[in-house]
Write a structure and sequence with these properties.
The complex is a heterodimer of chains A (113) and B (115). Chain A is mainly β and 113 residues long. In chain A, strands 2, 4, 5, 9, 10 and 11 form a 6-stranded mixed beta sheet that branches. Chain A has strands at 4-7, 10-14, 19-25, 30-38, 45-51, 56-59, 62-67, 72-77, 86-94, 101-103, 107-112. Chain A is 0% helix and 58% strand. In chain B, strands 2, 4, 5, 6, 9, 10 and 11 form a 7-stranded mixed beta sheet that branches. Chain B has strands at 5-7, 10-13, 19-24, 31-37, 44-50, 53-57, 64-68, 74-78, 87-94, 105-106, 110-114. Classes of the chains: A mainly beta (113), B mainly beta (115).
Chain lengths: 113, 115
Amino acid sequence: KNQVEQSPQSLIILEGKNCTLQCNYTVSPFSNLRWYKQDTGRGPVSLTIMTFSENTKSNGRYTATLDADTKQSSLHITASQLSDSASYICVVSQANSGYALNFGKGTSLLVTP
Amino acid sequence: DSGVTQTPKHLITATGQRVTLRCSPRSGDLSVYWYQQSLDQGLQFLIQYYNGEERAKGNILERFSAQQFPDLHSELNLSSLELGDSALYFCASSPRETLYYNEQFFGPGTRLTVL
């Protein structure tokens, strides 16, 4: 069973609208959580990295939140743009295995005009 | 541009064949990671090298092998290819041995098609 589950699997929103993507994980012990953006056919690009002590982290219009107690994270995208169309991947690092990364399957976001 | 380069960009081959994928990490990065991404699947970690030595192993098949050379570039060798090996193969690099709060930079990937 995947230790990182993302929802929704896919999402379509209108340009200019906000959206929130969810990530639930069971990875333990927890080290850090990352959000990546992956354009179709290209390599992932890091958006944020958060440790258990960080509740919120922003990168421009992207804001990630982390609740280490409930093992949940969200990525909020504000005022979406067409270029936000991509797959967003939640990745959780495990503390006792060389900080190995556990990847979610991603949420595919399509922003339409 | 992440600074990580991968060649070739595309590769088409037949079942049973052997191919080699190449990766050059960002300048100064000592760790190289290989990942496989099949259609509709998440990224699967294959193997990590740090400064020429194997550091961690993931879901890498015995038909697959990798190495990191003294100049820090890395090669992933895939042999006895099967249809199911068709995927995007990504290389990533990072400065240190472990990923604790360290950025990982991904290359553009090599798309392998096995016919």
